[in-house]
Design brief:
This protein is an alpha/beta fold. Helices cover 30% and strands 18% of the residues. The protein binds iron/sulfur cluster (SF4). InterPro entries: Asp_de-COase-like_dom_sf, MoPterin_dinucl-bd_dom, Mopterin_OxRdtase, Mopterin_OxRdtase_4Fe-4S_dom, Prok_molybdopt-oxidoreductase.
């Protein structure tokens, strides 16, 4: 490393690849070979990350919108914050403390997520806070807490993938979504290990698999039940592990008794012999690892689906063994840390429950407030947005780190809820689709312009260090929260120095499930990231009081919306390599291709519709419609279409049916109708 370089991490996904930056205004990206997660490798988004800077679209002055004319005017920071504070007070007069809501993001640093939760509970006194991570991995989080008593996406380093004998990826396109991680698959296969991919599309990840199963979207749970049925029948479960380390096995075993391969085939569309092949592979090998991602989790049955796959891993006696077990491949940059520090509706820092009296007393002590003054649990993300501007809902909303208009399910409806607000305030770096609806837009720093910690998909806390000078006119999110807290008369302190916030976060999290109290910025620098809870979890015991994992008997229910005569096709959504999340950042990086959305479909379906490659196709669901060019490929199920979600459109279609435990919307499947635009 040269004296002018700064070691930091990518602005995007949960791998949080290490990289070096040089330059004062526009950073130059170079490899950080020593960082263990990616060893210098980056995907094209990472290499192009410097393109986030220097664009003309960067906001550098607070803006207010005239509701009559729609005109934007630049105002001073004092003016902007005064207006926001006045709007907050008006909403509180009209609706009480819960008249104001806060919406955060899984890309915010730990320090911002923590400060946002504190700002909501202490400065605003509102229970109405949640964040877009609810739409990312909340089903896996909810299942992990139920099964293991603790949720850490991967309870082991990602490199452990190389040590397993069979890796089962359920609903993950890891090769495209986090390419530097693909080397682990290659090394696994070089040493003779097998890779199984379960995905309705044959993705680049599936291309590297030894076995690719293409289920009907929304039926992963049934496949897990069928696999466990066959493992039981073959005597391939670990009886002593089940007796010593788990509870609930008998109920689980009985619940899979009727899941013969032929029944699995009827539900999932996967040939019975392929179901048997998977079970034989899992039963024969000594180390089995199951990793789920959004394909399995973003369902109204997401929690149960993950529990069903956890049951498979537990029944084989794998969880807690090195090179084996269960994990969730988190998606957003701070998908892990973002769910640990209090921006969730039901949670206080340290991954503590907000309805736990001991947790309330501890955190209130750190914050210097009366525990009884802290609000209770609020609405989950979609339910919160659905309530905006209604007689019982908040009339003011502050948004940090989220582009709701693109990323929310049933997005047209959610947009109408945002438009019904008396006050919408958005902190962002550019005029995102959500900022464009705001009354006040506050321009903030991003990524290389500021310091803060992120917790990657392995539970490794890493430090993003400020490398370049922000443009004049912008402030950090921490400064925005401090400025607002002061204006609305909060007595609590809101530090603006990230390291000071991190120290306070450590005290607030001390003794909780995600305890950061022993982690410091210096340790993170010296150790190239620090795992909270240790590198590997569950070797000796699980986090439930009795030390055992809890197995849960779960039932296949299927997707909330099934194809019918009017909407005969399954629609699923996902990502493409060059874009990230709502695209608010990556769509503005000129060196990344932005070809817009497409409708991926099988030639058989295209032939039935009379659609050729590139023809405009209208996709309609019960909630909305969009038009995009057809991408005709033989790699997707003929009964399913795929639309990427990085642009306005896909989420106008998606279903807002919620998982009862995690409150995850069913992004990954709904029923759709297709028509060629010329013939519509
Ligand atoms: Fe960034 Fe993720 Fe790509 Fe790594 S894999 S460079 S963290 S987007």
């Amino acid at each position: 490393m040269t004296a002018t370089q700064t070691e930091t991490h990518c602005p995007y996904c949960s791998l949080q690849c290490g990289m070096r930056l040089a330059g004062r205004r526009t950073p130059e990206v170079s490899a950080w070979e020593e960082f263990p997660v990616n060893r210098g490798a980056l995907c094209r988004k990472g290499w192009a990350a410097a393109g986030l800077y220097g664009g003309r679209e960067r906001l550098t002055s607070p803006l207010v919108r005239d509701r009559e004319t729609g005109e934007w005017s630049a105002v001073s920071w004092d003016d902007a914050l005064d207006r926001v504070a006045a709007g907050i007070r008006a909403a509180q007069v009209a609706g009480g403390s819960d008249g104001v809501a806060v919406f955060g993001g899984g890309g915010l640093t730990n320090e911002k997520a923590y400060s946002l939760g504190k700002f909501a509970r202490v400065a605003l006194g509102t229970s109405q806070i949640d964040y877009n991570g609810r739409w990312c991995m909340s089903s896996a989080a909810s299942a992990g807490i139920r099964a293991f008593g603790l949720d850490r996406g991967l309870p082991f380093p990602l490199a452990d993938v190389e040590e397993t004998d069979v890796l089962v990826l359920v609903g993950s396109n890891l090769v495209e979504t986090m390419p530097p991680a693909a080397r682990h698959l290659d090394r696994l296969r070089e040493r003779g290990g097998k890779v199984v991919v379960i995905d309705p599309r044959r993705t680049p990840t599936a291309d590297r698999a030894d076995l690719h199963l293409q289920p009907v979207p929304g039926t992963d749970l049934a496949l897990a039940l069928g696999v466990l049925h066959l493992l039981v029948a073959a005597g391939a479960v670990d009886a002593s592990y089940l007796a010593e380390r788990t509870t609930g096995w008998e109920d689980v075993r009985d619940s899979v008794a009727s899941w013969w391969p032929e029944r699995v085939e009827r539900v999932t569309g996967i040939d019975a012999h392929e179901v048997r092949a998977l079970a034989e592979m899992l039963g024969a090998k000594s180390r089995v690892m199951v990793l789920t991602a959004r394909g399995a989790e973003q369902h109204s049955t997401g929690t149960d689906t993950v529990l069903a796959w956890i049951n498979v891993a537990l029944a084989r006696g794998m969880v807690g063994r090195r090179g084996a077990g269960y994990g969730c491949l988190t998606g957003q940059g701070n998908g892990q840390g973002g769910r640990e520090h209090g921006q969730k509706a039901d949670q206080l820092p340290g991954y503590r429950r907000i309805d736990d009296p001991a947790a309330r007393a501890h955190v209130a002590g750190v914050w210097g407030v009366d525990p009884d003054a802290l609000p209770g649990p609020g609405r989950s993300a979609y339910e919160l947005l659905d309530a905006l501007g209604t007689p019982d809902g908040p009339s003011a909303l502050l948004v940090l780190g989220s582009n709701i208009v693109v990323s929310a399910p049933r997005a047209t409806h959610v947009t109408s809820r945002l438009e019904a607000l008396d006050l919408l305030v958005v902190c962002d770096v550019v005029m995102s689709e959500t900022a464009a609806l705001a009354d006040v837009v506050l321009p903030v720093t991003q990524w290389a312009e500021e310091t803060g910690t992120m917790t990657n998909l392995e539970g490794r806390v890493v430090l993003r260090q400020r490398a370049i000078t922000p443009p004049s006119g912008v402030r950090t999110d921490l400064e925005v929260l401090a400025g607002l807290a002061e204006r609305i008369g909060s007595q609590a302190s809101f530090p603006t120095d990230p390291e000071e916030v991190f120290v306070e976060l450590g005290r607030a999290s001390a003794g909780g499930p995600a305890d950061y109290s022993a982690i410091t910025y210096d340790r993170i620098r010296d150790e190239q990231g620090v795992f909270w809870g240790g590198e590997r979890l569950f070797a000796e015991s699980f986090a439930h009081a009795d030390g055992r994992a809890r197995m849960h008997a779960v039932e296949h229910r299927g997707a909330a919306e099934q194809p019918c005569a009017d909407y005969p096709i399954h629609l699923t959504t996902g990502r493409v390599l060059a874009q990230y999340q709502s695209g608010a950042q990556t769509r503005r990086v000129r060196s990344l291709p932005d070809d817009g959305p497409f409708v991926e479909m099988h030639p058989l379906l295209a032939g039935r519709l009379g659609v050729r490659q590139g023809d405009a196709v209208r996709v309609a669901t019960r909630r909305g419609e969009m038009t995009a060019p057809a991408k005709v490929v033989p790699t997707i199920r003929p009964d399913t279409v795929f639309v990427p979600f990085h642009w306005v459109g896909a989420n106008r279609l998606t279903n807002d049916a919620l998982d009862p435990a995690s409150r995850m919307p069913e992004f990954k499947v709904c029923a759709a109708r297709l028509s060629p635009v010329a013939h519509a």
